[in-house]
Design brief:
Elements: H1 2-13, H2 18-49, H3 55-58, H4 62-85, H5 100-130, E1 148-151, E2 166-174, E3 177-186, E4 209-210, E5 217-220, E6 225-231, E7 237-246, E8 249-251, H6 254-264, E9 272-280, H7 286-304
Antiparallel strand pairs: 1-2, 2-3, 3-9, 4-6, 5-6, 6-7, 7-8, 7-9
Helix pairs in contact: 1-2, 1-4, 2-4
């Protein structure tokens, strides 16, 4: 993101025209991705070669990233100058004093636009701070019909999510079986407090792992619910199902959840969270899938109603 912003600035400073400017910015973005890949590969290789005891893994790798980023910026500036020198019809040897009053007036005409952008950005950040939601999930729904609950959740399944505003765990039972439920919420997301990050997992506690090959299936389309099989620390097989809620938009795709949050945070941070289910499988997970699907058909409205964006009754 920083590289793209600097590339746009460099394109303006070097007066790159139309498609030449677009191509330069696109290439700068590609160079930024490549630089980041180089950083990641170096850290992974160092960790693998030295048993995760190298400085880049055991202490920090931000310095390496900053060095690579510095080299990247030098490459972007050099690329901008190269594009400018190859641009036909532009006098690059022209001195500022030779530009004339028209050029000076053009620069001054950009001042109101710059001031307006600064004010708009400041107001947007002020609105974000004012409307940053930080509500925990609502109370667990009480079921007294075909489902009974909430009951205490099983210790064998306890998802781990860092920095959540609040979490709820419970279980619901019917004549067909038992469904474990986990719900959390996030307010304004920042480093260490993000719904989608590598430290967050439904595979907890202990040495949980997904069944191989990794297969994610759709249990329900509306509201969406995705599911996969995993093996618990004690060797038992479970069916885990989940959906992300970001400002009222539901998706089982982590990339879409990040996109929704980024899009909505242009105005103000959107409340978000995850609703997850777990059902212990028997001989196979077919019965567990049917049980989870039945629970979702009966209780999805109540489960999703726990999210801060579900309505104004919170």
């Amino acid at each position: 993101m920083v590289t793209l912003a600097i590339a746009v600035l460099a394109a303006g400073v070097n007066r790159l025209r139309a498609w030449r400017a677009v191509a330069f910015v696109a290439i700068s973005g590609l160079l930024a991705m490549i630089a980041n890949w180089i950083r990641i590969v170096i850290v992974i290789y160092a960790g693998d070669a030295y048993g995760m005891q190298t400085y880049l893994v055991a202490v920090e790798h931000k310095t390496l990233g900053n060095v690579i980023f510095g080299v990247l910026l030098v490459a972007v500036f050099l690329l901008a100058r190269r594009y400018a020198h190859r641009q036909p019809g532009l006098r690059h040897t022209q001195q500022p004093d030779e530009a004339g009053p028209a050029a000076t007036g053009g620069a001054w005409r950009l001042l109101p636009t710059g001031v307006l952008l600064v004010i708009t950005f400041a107001m947007g950040r002020g609105m974000a701070a004012t409307h940053a939601p930080g509500l925990p999930p609502g109370p667990l729904p009480i079921a007294t019909g075909g489902w009974q609950g909430p009951l205490p959740g099983a210790p064998a399944w306890a998802p781990h999510y860092s920095g959540a505003v609040g979490e709820r765990r419970a279980a619901y039972v019917s004549g067909s079986g038992r469904v474990e439920v986990y719900v959390n919420t996030y307010g304004e997301q920042k480093q260490g407090q993000e719904l989608i990050q590598y430290a967050n997992t439904l595979l907890a506690p202990g040495a949980w792992h997904r069944a191989w090959p990794h297969t994610t299936r759709t249990l329900a389309a509306q509201p969406p619910l995705a599911a996969f099989e995993a093996r618990g620390e004690d060797g038992s097989v479970w069916l885990l199902a989940y959906v992300y809620d970001v400002g009222g938009r539901r998706t089982p795709a982590s990339a879409l959840a990040q996109f929704y949050y980024g899009l909505q945070s242009l105005r103000h941070p959107a409340p978000s969270g995850v609703v997850a289910l777990a059902v212990r499988c028997g001989a196979d997970c077919g019965a567990a899938q049917a049980l989870a699907r039945t629970f979702w058909d009966d209780m999805s409205a109540q489960m999703l109603g726990m999210m801060p964006a579900a309505g104004t009754d919170r």
